[in-house]
Amino acid sequence: MKHRHEELLYSYMDDPQVIEDLKRIRDLGLTQTCIAAGYVRNRVWDKLHGYVALTPLNDIDVIYYDPGNTLEERDYHLEQLLNRGQINRHWSVKNQARMHERNGDPPYASAEDAMRYWPETATAVGIYMDVQDVMHTVAPFGLDDLFEMRVKKSPYFRNTTAFRVRVFQKEWLDTWPLLIMDEQR
Could you tell me the domains of the chain? Predict the structure, then answer.
């Protein structure tokens, strides 16, 4: 039996554009691939705030995990493939097998493990579609913070100042005034 938040998330994502996006990334044939971060988080927070129009995205974050090919050029090529034929949409693709180097973390064991090191727990949520067209979630911290609109620093993200600056620079509290800032360490 699915958790109530997971069912609700799937209902929020039951949109033809989302389904098309999930199929696009699935068809890339990458391992541990999902669309994550603001693509999921913003849509949920928009729905919980009763917004009719979705908050515009800066990009569509696609993550995957392939330690056998960590060349940044590969990600750029994948972005070009995804961006082809897209108007006003910007795809961002990152192989999580190399991102630990940029972030100064120990090597990640998987895409989900990498998400544990993201700044906020509510952002560390991804979705993907399997070959039977069934949607799944990747959420190392669960979905409670996302659905309770709690902005909380991940326990693995070490820089509290960077976490706070990020939240305020992105103007989340202005965009979604019902959010709760949880600054527990």
Answer: 4-148 (3.30.460.10)
